[in-house]
Design brief:
By secondary structure, the chain is α/β, with parallel strands linked by helices. The chain is about 40% helix and about 20% strand. The protein contains 21 helices and 21 strands. Strands 13, 14, 15, 16, 17, 18, 19, 20 and 21 form a nine-stranded mixed sheet that branches. Strand 7 and strand 8 form a beta hairpin. Helix 8 packs antiparallel against helix 9 and helix 14 packs parallel to helix 16. The radius of gyration is 30 Å and the shape is globular.
């Protein structure tokens, strides 16, 4: 059993149920005090428990106390000052699926970081006498995660050594409450049909984006999209078919924007995309072209096939407007002009001439020129501890096109793979990252992604040696991050390469663990130092118990195998709170400030 949130000192318990010698004259007083504590910590749950008073005929024995504790429906346990569990009730044993003897003679496997946190809270209760209430994540005996509230109070009981302080703790399972709250928050911020952001969330995200853009003096792209031909689908095939079509459209829109952008359904077949952190207006134009291309592909629903297109109006902050209402009005006017000319195109607010159709762009040719002309650069994503201390940075390629502005990585990297340019880009990133890291004032590590094709070429070791030699960067400051797909080739050759890199002092990390084809056998065979848990699990740990259970299992697996664990996709305070509580040593995500960026 793994209990997150309960710490036990790793030593045999010297207290057990039969070894707590209670002073009979004082015992009834303690039971009255115990009743009061239960009443305060558990409310009405304890009101039905009749405890004896000073004239009660009930014998004041440990057995009587144990029976009283067992009558409480919630888990209860007693801790001594050495953080040992010395008494439990039946509800606690049922939750943990163990006997009292097992609890009193064994300790749980609690990560060191968690143990420090919980012991510190317990020590504070012993020191001040003030009660403590803490919300925790706990796995029951079946491995199912629960969200619980543990309430702790100080109580003094007579022992052979005199009046001795203990902590009495009650555990309340609030999983259903938190799940209902999470569901309510989700529904309040999302469209019920497509799962996209609704107007409320759009307005909140846009207000945040506008505030950041004002501070940083940057631009925002506002795209208003309307489907061409959707009404005909509704009229001919019914609203059920129309709803299914909208779900497909929503998925296609989401797949073509970055995680920092916002996609919202405003109602009917009208959608809005807020694009941030990219050069404008070229970023909005490139996105509009991708969306028009994606949405004009046929959609098959059952035996029917539907084809729609998209009309898009674009406004740019601060060029056309300075607030949300004005951005919508300008984009809506541009959208109306597109619809009048037949749709299937996009237009920027205030632009002269006809709407622009999707242009044929030879992106692979431009990407080759960027490599030749040195137009690629690097940007760095921070890797931080839960306390905010930066451990290092992950190097990521960036491309600012001279005419189209910043091109998203999810656009040009797939093109690079198809065009055979990935090997050259990966080598550029490695060389530049090592050179940059050598100039940093601290010994923070730099993490560089390895492309599977580098392992296929068989020259990864030589490429790393050249980069380290040219830059003078110590090998222990370089970490290579491998995707799961990189392990699917010739395992003997891959192992030889990774072992040679490890021998030179280079650290190895397995990226997006849990989302692909990696197996436990891969962890046993290949010499990894770190696992990076895929952001899809991290993003849902606060709302999906299954994701939480998977993350807990990976965290525990890494600790048992001596592997460091990094949580990717930590994007808000809720994620950060859970990550800290679970004992992660490193995180990565939007909640962290951006790292440095190198020029081309």
């Amino acid at each position: 059993m793994l209990i997150w949130g309960r710490a036990s000192k790793k030593a045999d318990c010297t207290f057990c149920l039969g070894q707590i010698a209670l002073d009979p004259p004082k015992f009834s007083e303690k039971l009255v005090a115990l009743r009061n504590i239960f009443s305060q910590t558990m409310g009405e749950e304890a009101s039905s428990v009749e405890l004896m008073h000073s004239k009660s005929p009930i014998l004041p024995t440990v057995k009587s106390l144990q029976r009283i504790l067992n009558s409480v429906p919630s888990p209860v346990f007693l801790l001594d000052k050495d953080h040992r569990i010395v008494m439990v009730n039946d509800a606690f044993c049922e939750f943990a699926r163990v006997s009292p003897e097992e609890i009193l003679t064994k300790t749980g496997d609690v990560p060191e970081e968690q143990r420090k946190v919980f012991w510190k809270m317990d020590d504070e209760v012993f020191r001040t006498g003030l009660p403590n209430e803490n919300e925790e994540v706990a796995s029951d005996a079946e491995g199912v995660p629960h969200i619980v509230v543990t309430r702790k109070r100080l109580i003094h009981l007579p022992t052979p050594d005199g009046e001795t302080p203990f902590i009495i703790a009650t555990v309340s399972d609030i999983t259903s409450i938190r799940e209902a709250e999470a569901r309510a928050r989700y529904l309040a911020a999302h469209d019920g049909l497509t799962g996209l952001a609704n107007r409320t969330q759009l307005n909140e995200r846009l207000a945040e984006a506008l505030e950041l853009a004002r501070r940083a003096d940057t631009r925002i792209g506002y795209l208003l999209l309307d489907l061409d031909g959707f009404k005909a689908v509704n009229d001919r095939h019914g609203h059920a078919a129309g709803d299914e079509l909208l779900k497909v459209v929503a998925k296609r829109l989401k797949s073509h924007v970055r995680i920092v952008d916002t996609v919202a359904r405003l109602g009917g077949d009208e959608f809005c995309i807020v694009q941030v952190g990219i050069h404008q207006p070229s970023g909005a134009f490139a996105l509009a072209e991708r969306l028009i291309d994606a949405l004009e592909k046929p959609v098959r629903l059952g035996s029917d096939e539907f084809t729609v297109s998209a009309s898009i109006g674009i406004s740019i902050y601060p060029d056309e407007a300075n607030d949300a209402e004005a951005l919508y009005k300008e984009a809506d006017d541009a959208l109306y002009k597109v619809k009048r000319t037949g749709g299937g195109a996009y237009l920027r607010a205030g632009a002269d001439g006809a709407p622009r159709n999707r242009e044929a762009w030879q992106i692979d040719a431009d990407l080759r020129c960027a490599l030749t002309d040195g137009d690629l650069s690097l940007e760095y994503s921070p890797l931080s501890g839960p306390d905010g201390a930066v451990h290092g940075y992950e190097a990521l390629p960036a491309w600012i096109h001279p005419d189209r502005g910043e091109i998203a990585r999810d656009v040009f990297l797939p093109v690079a793979e198809k065009a055979g340019l990935m090997h050259a880009i990966a080598a550029f990133v490695l060389q530049r990252a090592c050179a940059d890291a050598r100039t940093w004032e601290t010994d923070q590590r730099v993490t560089v992604n390895v492309s599977p094709i580098q392992l296929e070429y068989g020259d990864l070791l030589k490429t790393v040696e050249r980069a380290l030699s040219a830059s003078g960067l110590p090998s222990h400051r370089l970490e290579l991050e491998l995707p799961e797909t990189a392990l699917l080739g010739d395992e003997d050759r891959i192992y030889a390469t990774l072992a040679a890199l490890k021998e030179k002092g280079v650290h190895l990390a397995l990226d997006k663990f849990g989302s692909g084809s990696s197996t436990i056998a891969h962890l046993r065979r290949f010499p990894f130092d770190r696992l990076k848990i895929d952001e899809t699990f991290i993003s849902s740990i606060g709302t999906d118990p299954r994701s939480l259970a998977i993350v807990q299992a990976i965290l525990h697996l890494g600790e048992e195998m001596g592997l460091a664990i990094t949580a990717e996709g930590v994007d808000d305070e809720d994620h950060l709170r859970v990550i800290r509580q679970m004992g992660f040593s490193e995180l990565q995500g939007r909640i962290l400030t951006e790292g440095p960026r190198t020029n081309k």
